[in-house]
Design a protein that fits this description.
There is one protein chain. By secondary structure, the protein is α+β, with helices and mostly antiparallel strands. It folds into two domains: 91 residues, q64v53_bacfr protein fold, CATH 2.20.140; 158 residues, Alpha-Beta Plaits (2-Layer Sandwich), CATH 3.30.70. The chain contains six helices and 15 strands. The strands form two sheets. Strands 8, 9, 10, 11, 12, 13, 14 and 15 form an eight-stranded mixed sheet that branches. Strands 1, 2, 3, 4, 5, 6 and 7 form a seven-stranded mixed sheet that branches. A hairpin with a 6-residue loop joins strand 14 and strand 15. The longest helix is centred in the middle third of the chain and has 21 residues. Pfam families: Guanylate_cyc. One of its GO terms (biological process) is cyclic nucleotide biosynthetic process. One of its GO terms (molecular function) is adenylate cyclase activity. It comes from Bradyrhizobium betae.
């Protein structure tokens, strides 16, 4: 089965990140698809790729072998234009610990969500080739700012990035730096930050804090950085970061209402 790993710029030589994988196999007139999140460990020939959880699967019945072959070629071509890198080895399933449960790691951090506003329309306007180049520069810029601010990239989601920080001020400063960096690419982004506890399971972030961070980002408009009250409460009294009350909001799927604040300056 040909395998393609969704990676960012220069990620072939980087270990310890979460990405996406997509696989296709044709048998006669049927095409078997498999896709999901993966964890990448090691680099170069020693790189290992693991499913972070059971992947999704789908079978396409094409009627004839020729139609199945055409479908497979077309599907592979589409994903190659989205920076999928061919894999030579199999994607393994992460082994469970001795007690039968998956390895879990709990942590408390400031969670940052970055999302491009109007990405679909922008991609259609630029075309696949130019959009792929812009996205490569976008991820490179985001990762540069994350490194400077000592943030940890957790996962990329389409045109979004999720990262964590030990201190809320570092996360906010990184968010504003990312805004300035990607503006030169003609991109508008929205950013949300929340502070809370989450669980890492097989390289995947799990917990209510992640969902709250995502909902906070969804409330932001183009060019805005919004933070939850949890982030504001953790900011040091001497912090020079200016926040403006953005009102009380009901976050979709999240209990109670949350007060949000907009980063000024």
């Amino acid at each position: 089965m040909p395998k393609f790993l969704r990676i960012g710029l220069h990620q072939s030589n980087v270990s310890g990140y979460t990405s996406k994988a997509w696989c296709v196999r044709r048998i006669g007139s049927a095409v078997f698809l498999k896709w999901g999140a993966v964890e990448v460990q090691g680099a170069g020939k020693g790189r290992k790729v693991y499913w972070t959880r059971l992947p999704q699967e789908k079978t396409i019945r094409c009627g004839t072998a020729q139609r199945a072959q055409d479908y497979t070629k077309s599907a592979i071509a589409r994903r190659r234009s989205h920076d999928y890198e061919p894999l030579t080895g199999a994607i393994a399933t992460r082994r469970k610990s001795v007690d039968g449960s998956a390895d879990l790691k709990r942590a408390l951090a400031t969670i940052l969500i970055v999302d491009i506003v109007g990405s679909t329309a922008k991609a259609a306007k630029l075309g696949d080739a130019r959009w792929t180049k812009v996205m490569s520069l976008y991820y490179a810029a985001v990762r540069k700012e994350l490194k400077s601010s000592r943030g940890k990239e957790v996962v990329t989601t389409g045109d979004g990035v999720l990262a964590t920080f030990k201190a809320p001020a570092a996360g906010i400063n990184c968010a504003t730096s990312i805004q300035k960096a990607v503006r030169t690419l003609g991109l508008d982004i929205r950013v949300g930050l929340h502070a809370g506890e989450y669980t890492m399971s097989g390289g995947e972030m799990v917990g209510l804090a992640f969902h709250i961070g995502t909902r906070v980002a969804a409330k932001a408009r183009a060019g805005e950085v919004l933070v939850s009250s949890a982030v504001k409460d953790l900011l040091a009294a001497q912090s020079q970061i200016r926040l403006r009350d953005h009102g009380s909001h009901q976050l979709k799927g999240v209990p109670a209402r949350w007060r949000l604040y907009r980063v000024e300056g």
